[in-house]
TrEMBL record, chain B:
Gene3D superfamilies: beta-sandwich domain of Sec23/24, Sec23/Sec24 helical domain, Severin, von Willebrand factor, type A domain, Zn-finger domain of Sec23/24. SUPFAM superfamilies: beta-sandwich domain of Sec23/24 (SSF81995), C-terminal, gelsolin-like domain of Sec23/24 (SSF82754), Helical domain of Sec23/24 (SSF81811), vWA-like (SSF53300), Zn-finger domain of Sec23/24 (SSF82919). It comes from Acanthisitta chloris. GO terms for cellular component: COPII vesicle coat; cytosol; endoplasmic reticulum exit site; endoplasmic reticulum membrane. It is found in: Cytoplasmic vesicle, COPII-coated vesicle membrane; Endoplasmic reticulum membrane; Cytoplasm, Cytosol. This is Protein transport protein SEC23. Residues 127-392 form the Sec23/Sec24 trunk domain.
Length: 1122, 767
């Protein structure tokens, strides 16, 4: 909601500047409107405008007061707060007035919007805000960066709005402008827009529970939108709840997501709009009817009297009403305009007023988590990754396989360039599915192989058009007409569909697999089943730490769980074993032997495999020999004094072994130290922290030698995937060691200062999962697209020998490839844009298959549509990967600046083209992107881009490589960790406690929190937690007795302990890696580390706080706009 | 000393020495005119049942350049306790231990019957014998199985304290660690990369600094400096282990596609074996025993590529300079052989395959180190199995018939100089006053190293008379030669065998008949043959033959009695009478003729020729043929086609082959099954007789000869037909009548023709 609030605030600022304020607002409204269902919205719009107008006046007035000049600046910051209020008010107003009023008013400001109807609200909100905030806001503005961005202003360009109506879908844009004001309107939009949610949300806040909620709901269902009235009620509830819960701050967030969101931000304000009308009946509704002003008031009433807002708000009434808001307001900054003026001025932006990720997530969860996501419709934006939802494949690939930054692509490259929104898809071809969803069906097209387009070689898919009675089909990608092979012929029904449409997965589903023929195999030979080779460092460190024994023990049982093809009784995968220090030891574990045989290869300069038969064996056949081997390895090396290790020869050995066995496979390398023994790939310690922040910093991320790149190339050619488990006690140059892993599609696991007691669970769990997880080998992925766009860039763990084929020696269910698209021609709105991702791979049973994922996207000629269908999480995924690759070639500073600049351009473009005209001082964020700033800030503050002093070079390289293969859900939680108040958990239910925002001020020292980011779990214990809780959770009697060395929570038989442990277990289950659990006691040393993850706060390494960054962004945007 | 024959025989039995001339021409000029050089065949370790070794150090001449050993030829002043060296005339004091010496109390070395005496000396630590098996695994399953069994069996034949090691190779080379329990370990090397000794030792963890870091092993105890223990273990400790290990040996697992030879890294395997011993046990007796079933096909030392369509080099290719790998491979093995020899180790090659295995290239490994070379068709033949078993034969006194690391030091009196030696030895480059500038064989030294030898190992040593014509030796003076052989006995004792011989000088002009009568034509034939074979290794075949012919003609000219230009008047004295015949057969022998032999076979034959004693050498030159018939007891018959009669069974011994040949009629009888009828039991006995005799030969021969049982018209009969003098051929069949013998289809000249020509040339005044 904060977002929304911002939006609101934005407006305020804007108001000051433009003076017109009114206009801008309308714009917002307009934007939102577009999305909104035309007709109904229309009405809303009407109202909105009205509000806006009112707003303007205020704005101007206020503006002046503050300061001609200042206004802008100050306005920006504060605005949000104000806006929020105003928005609400507006909303109310709108509501009150509904269509009629609005239209009237708006006309002047932005008629177009009106048509857009609902959307407009946003804009309106802004106006309101202006009103409210004027004076106060200004001041605030001055205080803060003028730029306070508040404006999550979803409000897209007014004009669009109009358009939007036309196309119901478009609605989304609205979000941007919190213009909360519009919010009322928004909500409507939202409703209609469904997508736009953002803006709406804002509105909600104000409205407080009721409104916001309403808006939200509405958003979801476009249809409903029109019926605003109806939705509101329901939604209203939701929202209302939010507000209450969150307190003032929250409100905004809540609505944010769902609703146009933006408006919401304005918290109260926006919500008020819609909300008020419906649910909030009380205040809100009242407001609506009333003129803008009244609206404002309205909100207040509804709002729960949380005073803060009131104070803040200049509008006396508002402020009061918003009591809650005020809180925001203070925080908001954004609100400033409205409320800010009063309170804000002196204060900073109120964090509660700026878009809150938590709110967005919660909203999406409650709005979209309940019903399955059906993929039949082109260009649908899927629920957020944080939402649990089921997918029904009806022709498009599940979002678990593919997510896009935008589901509506600009038709032309000019548009795309203008918006600067990267067009990218995050593809996880072998993603694991929840048990309720079915795996892709396997299709066998017989000896001639899958049916494909003659020209572009695209595979048969639901979008292929059968013509001439089914004798030919026209390619949906390149339009080439291809004969249907006789064995594939089928008649068409009266709609032109093949009669067997539903019998054939490749005609009716988005994802499916083909059985590949021998033509798709290397050397025209069907592949042999793959092999796993375990390669264990047995140098002094590894032996002494107990690692070797641990691995050997674990392997004994783990080998029973090798991945197997669905119905097979035993895994087809063969296994081999190697140990090494300065030399390599291979083991012959042929089943006919009584004892394993060890073969030592000391010629590491020229690696080779000493044996063929007996090295790779079937586990069951050779079980006794293997067990005997694993028993003896720890004994054999128990007295070793060899400290030096080699590394490249180890990989070479595995590679050679696979070559000799003529199969693909995976190496599991357990390694402890920098390979300094005389051998190829020998490394020196080149760690130098002094390089950080210099032009040479990039060298820390680059491999020391090109040797490993060449080795990686060879590995890929053979289908040799390398998984690396590192146990360093000091620098071991992850950047170099990881090269092969990275390029072969493998995973790196790093356990610094490995200690058996504390790290063994984590390591073993990772190992188990890594061994057991589904994996494909010798994979080649190609992404085909409709003519007009082209996959131009790829991010992830793979190797490319040409510009189109992504080659991976191994690809597991966690690996993700991000693909960027660029225009090379025009797209058409009619046909949309299609993606087909074809992955050729060898299954774990040695079967050669093609997995096909198809996705259809909409195309737009209006930027607003683009902004309305964006997915910020995916965008962040792309941006992070882009930036993390950038550090290889550019100074980190340059990379950071480029990131900021690109985002500023994206937002500025929106502001310029989609948001309703408003003062430049307003920060207006598209609803769908209102979290962009906060997330972006997290990326910028991440260890790779802004390392703190305690972050080692290896950590950075490790994370850099890790992130490059992450999917959207992982990047999401990695950059914005999940913070759960454990003490708030309901011990009787299965649900998680509601997350809170990552900021220290959210922590109460009387509570216990859990923070997870996909790699670590922290359990933070406040100093004044009740003893009972401590006793229950840790089994000790006082805070001081809690040991921070714990790596697991003690198993205690009480509900709280059980609940917490089940939460931890659940979280562990959700992540691809077992997270390291650390106990952090408040005011303890470790807390520094913990604080690093409170990403909304200023970081020790100099990373900006969310609020500061938002201001900075606003400034950047304004610079771009001016 | 009734006849020279007896004298020669006595000398041979006592000293293991046979001289070409037993009376020596007294001047250089005369000596050269004798055509056959003054030379001897020395069997350093000839078995002497009656020679108990003495348990003290020999007494040496104190002159640093001489150091001859006190011997029966020395003049002794019992009163002054002095003795005069008979080589340098240095007067030496007896050591204190000889204080009690007197005419009646002589030490053994002064007694005339001890012209050969053996000392046991205590020097340095005694290291056990070392046997390092280098086993090819690119074999057919049956072959490998047979080989494994032979190897396992051999463990029981080794001395209990011997160290044994195992290296297996195919595409890779595995050096097996034998010290471990549980998991068997081996170090693996790839077969394509040559490694220096240092690298090998580093990689095996043998270099000193690496010692402490050896994983998995307890600290080296200081009193156990033998770091190689992991690879070389006392056989009594690990024979169970090793037996199992051998039992589990698998064929080389690397796939061999059709049309390819298996990749066999013999070159590197040998290199590693050499490097391993070099780093761990230099200068102690060690045998590297290479068992290979085919040619090296990769890496250094490869002899042929792995494409089956390219056959391994033949003599034809070699003559055409078309053997692409030969030179490089030869160089590789020569380097190895020299290193091995320098370390005092030896390399045996047991090559069993139907095709060639690269013996040509590898021959120097065995030749220079005194190792054995055995060639067979398969490891699953009795030829190999028994030969291999015989390597570990024990002598009459229960000692192994093998000795190691011998230094042969030859000292001569002043009138003689040493021109060189031919045999399984390398030069130690010991220059000295008695070293001639003219080299025959391995010259330029008076000392050689024989890394491995057995009681039959025989060297040819060539001398040069340096006495000037105008300074004749005092009449009655004798020339002396002393052979001092220090070696490591199979019991690991260090021993020194000293043989001192003396021969009379004679003036060739005045006493030619003495010299003539003392000619040992058998020894001379072998000595000349060795020279010829030695030359053949480096020269073109025809040149060698021409040289031999010229020598023969010159000899006949010198010692024949004839009238000028009257071939019919030509006569040779008894002591020369057989010599031309030896030369005739030598010319036809596989040692000089490569036709019909593969390069490997030639190398194999030459190898054995260069080390066997005189009797065996003669058999090689001129095979022995026995006839069995109802007409009388078995009798030796002429090696002539006329000996091949239908009612005879022939037994031919060529050293390398034992051929039993049933004449046409006999064969028919046998087919008819007469031998099974009680009334023809005598026929059965007749059939059995040659078999029994053959067994007898087989029992004693090393290596086991190829045993061939054939009959008239049988394909294997070629072995016989190619050896006999083709007195009857398709060319002269009718001239000789049909009633006797079997015609040989050849264009080779017969002995008769050869002799005719020889006579003609010998008497020709134009020559």
């Amino acid at each position: 909601m904060s977002v929304n609030q911002q939006a609101h605030t934005g407006p305020p600022y804007g108001q000051p500047q433009p003076g017109y304020q009114g206009y801008p607002q309308p714009a917002y409204g307009g934007q939102s409107l577009p999305g909104v269902p035309p007709s109904q919205y229309g009405a809303y719009n009407g109202p909105m405008p009205g509000y806006q107008q009112p707003g303007p006046p205020q704005g101007p007035l206020r503006a002046p007061p503050t300061s001609g000049a200042p206004p802008p600046a100050s306005g920006a910051s504060h605005p949000s707060g104000h806006l929020a209020y105003s928005q609400y008010e507006h909303g109310d107003v709108q509501n009150g007035i509904p269509a009629s009023a609005a239209p009237m008013q708006r006309p002047p400001a932005s008629q177009p919007f009106l048509p857009g109807s609902a959307p407009t609200p946003v804009s309106q909100t802004s106006t309101f805000q202006q009103y409210g905030s004027p004076p106060a806001s200004v001041q605030q503005l001055s205080n803060h960066m003028a730029g306070m961005t508040i404006g999550s202003a979803a409000a897209s360009a007014p004009p669009p709005a109009g358009l939007g109506y036309g196309p119901p879908t478009s609605v989304p844009p609205v979000s941007g402008s919190f213009s909360a004001t519009g919010s009322g309107l928004y909500t409507p939009y939202s409703a209609s827009q469904g997508p736009p949610p953002t803006s709406v949300s804002q509105g909600l806040p104000l409205a407080q529970p009721p409104f916001p909620g309403q808006t939200i709901s509405t958003q979801r269902l476009p249809t409903q939108v029109p019926g605003f009235a109806p939705p509101p009620p329901s939604t209203g509830v939701g929202p209302s709840s939010y507000p209450p819960t969150t307190g003032a701050p929250r409100p905004p967030t809540m609505p944010g997501p769902p609703l146009p969101g933006q408006t919401v931000a304005g918290p109260p304000t926006s919500q008020p709009n819609h909300v008020s009308s419906p649910p909030p009946p009380s205040a809100m509704s009242g407001l609506h009817p009333g003129p803008p002003m009244s609206g404002l008031h309205g909100p207040p009433p509804p709002t729960h009297p949380p005073q803060p807002g009131y104070q803040m708000q200049q509008n006396g009434s508002f402020g009061q009403v918003r009591g809650p808001q005020p809180n925001y307001g203070g925080a908001y900054p954004g609100t400033p305009n409205y409320g800010s003026p009063p309170g804000p001025p002196p204060k900073r932006l109120d964090p509660d007023s700026i878009p809150s990720p938590i709110q967005v997530i919660e909203d999406d969860r409650s709005n979209r988590g309940s019903e399955p996501f059906v993929t039949g419709v082109r260009g649908q934006v899927p629920p957020l990754v944080t939402t649990n939802f089921l997918v029904k494949d009806q022709g498009n690939a599940s979002p678990r396989y593919i997510r896009c930054t935008s589901y509506n692509i600009p038709c032309t490259s000019d548009m795309a360039k203008q918006s600067q929104v990267p067009l990218a898809a995050v593809i996880k071809p072998l993603a694991a599915l929840p048990p309720e969803e079915t795996l892709p069906y396997l299709v066998d097209h017989g000896e001639s192989g899958p049916v494909r387009c003659n020209r572009c070689k695209a595979y048969m898919c639901p979008f292929m058009q059968f013509i001439e009675g089914g004798r030919r089909f026209q390619c949906c990608f390149c339009s080439c007409v291809t004969e249907v092979p006789p064995h594939y012929f089928q008649h068409l029904d009266h709609t032109g569909k093949r009669v067997d449409f539903y019998d054939r997965p490749e005609l009716s589903l988005g994802s499916y697999e083909f059985l590949a023929t021998v033509d798709y195999c290397k050397n025209n030979k069907f592949p042999s089943p793959p092999a796993f080779i375990f390669m264990i460092d047995v140098s002094y460190n590894a032996v002494k730490s107990g690692l070797v024994r641990l691995i050997c023990e674990e392997l004994k049982s783990l080998l029973d769980y090798l991945p197997r093809e669905g119905n097979m009784e035993e895994s087809a995968i063969r296994v081999g074993f190697v140990t090494y220090n300065k030399v390599l030891h291979f083991y012959n574990v042929k089943s006919s032997l009584a004892q394993p045989q060890m073969m030592v290869v000391s010629d590491v300069a020229d690696m080779f495999v000493p044996l063929l038969d007996g090295f790779l064996v079937n586990v069951n056949e050779s079980r006794t020999v293997i067990t005997s081997l694993l028993d003896q390895i720890p004994e054999m090396f128990a007295d070793t004094r060899e400290t030096e290790t080699v590394f490249a020869p180890v990989i070479q050995a595995g590679l050679e072994a696979l070559k000799a066995a003529e199969c693909a496979g995976k190496l599991f390398i357990f390694h402890t130290s920098l390979p300094i023994a005389e051998a190829p790939g020998k490394l020196k310690n080149r760690d130098d922290k002094k390089l950080v922040n210099t032009d040479k910093e990039k060298t820390l991320f680059q491999p020391q030698t090109s040797f490993y790149n060449n080795l990686a190339k060879d590995c890929v050619a053979q289908g040799c995937c390398v998984d690396l488990f590192l146990f360093p006690n000091q620098y071991l140059d992850v950047a170099t060691l990881g090269v092969v892993t990275y390029q072969t599609g493998g995973s790196i696991y790093k356990y610094a200062y490995f200690q058996l007691e504390t790290d063994q669970d984590r390591f073993l769990n990772d190992l188990r999962r890594d061994v057991q997880k589904e994996v494909g080998f010798d994979a080649v992925m190609r992404v085909r697209t409709s003519t007009g766009i082209r996959a131009t860039d790829f991010f992830g763990a793979f190797y490319m020998s040409n510009t189109t084929d992504v080659e991976m020696a191994g690809l597991d269910c966690d690996k993700t490839i991000t693909v960027e698209f660029k225009h090379d021609d025009k797209l058409s709105e009619d046909s949309g844009a299609l993606l087909q991702c074809a992955l050729l791979y060898t299954s774990c049973a040695g079967q050669r298959r093609l997995r096909i994922h198809n996705l259809s996207l909409n195309c737009c000629t209006q930027l607003a549509d683009l902004y309305r269908n964006c997915e910020t999480d995916t965008l962040i995924n792309y941006l992070a990967k882009y930036a993390y690759r950038g550090v290889l070639s550019s100074p980190v500073k340059t990379v950071r600046d480029a990131l900021i600049n690109q985002c500023a351009q994206i937002l500025a473009c929106y502001r310029k083209n989609c948001a309703s005209p408003s003062s430049a001082g307003q920060l207006i964020l598209p609803e769908c992107m209102k979290l962009l700033p906060v997330y972006l800030n997290c990326v910028l503050k991440s260890d790779v881009l802004q390392p703190g002093p305690e972050v080692t070079t290896d950590d950075r390289a490790y994370i850099r490589q890790l992130v490059t293969s992450m999917d959207v859900a992982e990047t999401n939680v990695f950059f914005y960790p999940r913070l759960l108040p454990l003490t708030k958990a309901d011990v009787d239910s299965d649900s998680l406690p509601a997350a809170i925002r990552n900021s220290e001020e959210r922590l109460s020292k009387g509570d216990i929190y859990l923070l997870e980011n996909g790699l670590n779990i922290f359990v933070w214990v406040g100093v004044s937690v009740q003893q009972g809780l401590i006793q229950n959770l840790f089994g000790v009697s006082s805070f001081s007795q809690i040991s921070s060395a714990l790596s697991t929570l003690p198993v205690l038989e009480n509900p709280f302990s059980k609940k917490v442990r089940s939460i931890v277990d659940m979280l562990q289950g959700q992540r691809s890696r077992y997270m390291k659990l650390m106990i952090v006691k408040q005011e303890d040393k470790l807390e520094m580390l913990f604080r690093h993850f409170l990403v909304e706060d200023k970081s020790l390494s100099g990373g900006a706080s969310y609020v500061d960054f938002l201001c900075h962004m606003h400034k950047e945007i304004r610079q771009l706009l001016s | 000393m009734a006849t020279y024959l007896e004298f020669i025989q006595q000398n041979e039995e006592r000293d293991g020495v046979r001289f070409s001339w037993n009376v020596w021409p007294s001047s250089r000029l005369e000596a050269t005119r004798m055509v056959v050089p003054l030379a001897c065949l020395l069997t350093p370790l000839k078995e002497r049942l009656d020679l108990p070794p003495v348990q003290y150090e020999p007494v040496l001449c104190s002159r640093p350049t001489c150091k001859a050993v006190l011997n029966p030829l020395c003049q002794v002043d019992y009163r002054a306790k002095l003795w005069a060296c008979n080589f340098c005339f240095q007067r030496n004091q007896f050591p204190p231990a000889y204080a009690g010496i007197s005419e009646v109390n002589q030490p053994a070395e002064l007694m005339p019957q001890f012209s050969t005496i053996e000392y046991i000396v205590q020097r340095g630590p005694q290291t056990p014998l070392i046997f390092l098996y280098v086993v090819d695994t690119c074999l057919e399953e049956e072959d490998l199985q047979a080989l494994k069994e032979s190897l396992q069996m051999s463990l029981s034949l080794l001395p209990a304290d011997a160290l044994v090691g195992l290296i297996t190779f195919g595409r890779m080379i595995q050096v097996h660690e034998l010290s471990c329990e549980g998991i068997s370990k081996s170090y693996v090397f790839r077969g394509t990369k040559d490694l220096t000794a240092k690298q090998i030792q580093d990689m095996l963890g043998l270099s000193r600094p690496a010692v402490q870091m050896q994983q998995g092993r307890p600290l080296q105890t200081p009193e156990q400096p033998v770091i190689s223990s992991r690879f070389l273990q006392p056989v009594h400790k690990i024979d169970m282990n090793l037996t199992d290990l051998l039992g589990e040996l698998q064929r080389d697992p690397w796939p061999v596609t059709q049309g390819k030879r298996p990749l066999r890294s013999t070159g590197v395997a040998l290199s590693i074996a050499v490097g391993l011993l070099e780093g761990t046990f230099p200068n102690t007796g060690a045998r590297i025993m290479l068992f290979t079933g085919g040619p090296p096909t990769q890496g250094p030392g490869m002899v042929v590529g792995d494409e089956l369509k390219t056959p391994i080099r033949s003599w034809h290719d070699i003559e055409k300079d078309n053997a692409r790998f030969m030179k490089k491979a030869t160089k590789h093995y020569e380097t190895l052989a020299n290193r091995t020899a320098a370390n005092g180790h030896c390399i045996d090659i047991y090559a069993c395959a139907l095709d060639q295995t690269g013996l040509l290239e590898m021959k120097c490994c065995a030749n220079l180190t005194g190792g054995h070379m055995v060639m067979g068709d398969s490891f699953n033949t009795s030829l190999f199995k028994q030969t291999f078993q015989r390597v570990f034969n024990k002598g009459f006194n229960g000692e192994f018939r093998m000795a190691f690391g011998a230094h042969l030091d030859v000292k001569t009196s002043r009138e003689l100089k040493i021109a060189g030696a031919i045999g399984p030895c390398i030069s130690l480059n010991a220059k000295g006053p008695c070293v001639s500038e003219n080299e025959l064989g391995i010259g330029g030294t008076s000392q050689w190293k024989i890394c491995s030898l057995d009681p039959s190992t025989t060297l040819a040593i060539y001398f040069e008379v340096v006495n000037q014509h105008n300074a004749p030796i005092p009449q009655g003076g004798r020339g002396a030669v002393q052979f001092v052989t220090q070696y490591q006995h199979s019991t690991t004792q260090k021993r020194i065998r000293v043989t001192t011989i003396a021969r009379n000088w004679a003036d060739a002009q005045s006493q030619l008949q003495h010299i003539e009568a003392a000619f040992d034509q058998e020894a001379a034939a072998v000595l000349m043959a060795r020279l010829g074979v030695y030359r053949a290794e480096s020269e073109e075949g025809p040149d060698v033959l021409r040289w031999l012919d010229r020598q023969l003609i010159r000899l006949c000219q010198k010692f024949g009695q004839y009238n000028k230009d009257d071939p019919n008047s030509f006569r040779l004295s008894e002591s020369f009478s057989l010599y031309p015949q030896f030369m005739f057969h030598l010319r036809r022998s596989p040692f000089l003729q490569v036709f019909n032999n593969s390069p490997d076979e030639s190398s194999y034959y030459r190898h054995h020729f260069a080390r066997q004693d005189l009797t065996q050498s003669l058999i090689m030159i001129q095979p022995i043929l026995y006839a069995y018939s109802f007409h009388g007891p078995p009798e030796p018959v002429l090696l002539d086609s006329s000996s091949i009669l239908p009612d005879r069974i022939l037994l031919m011994d060529t050293f390398f082959q034992i051929v039993i040949y049933l004449g046409e009629t006999i064969a028919q009888w046998q087919k008819a099954g007469y031998q099974d009828m009680p009334e023809y039991e005598n026929f059965k006995h007749l059939l059995q007789a040659p078999l029994d005799d053959a067994q007898e030969i087989l029992q004693t021969r090393f290596p086991m000869p190829r045993y061939i049982h054939t009959e008239h018209g049988g394909s294997q009969a070629r072995f016989l037909l190619s050896k006999v003098n083709p007195s009857q051929t398709h060319n002269n069949l009718y001239a000789w009548g049909q009633e006797s013998g079997a015609p040989i289809l050849t264009d080779d000249v017969s002995l008769q023709v050869f002799m005719d020509h020889l006579k003609k040339l010998a008497v020709s005044s134009a020559a």
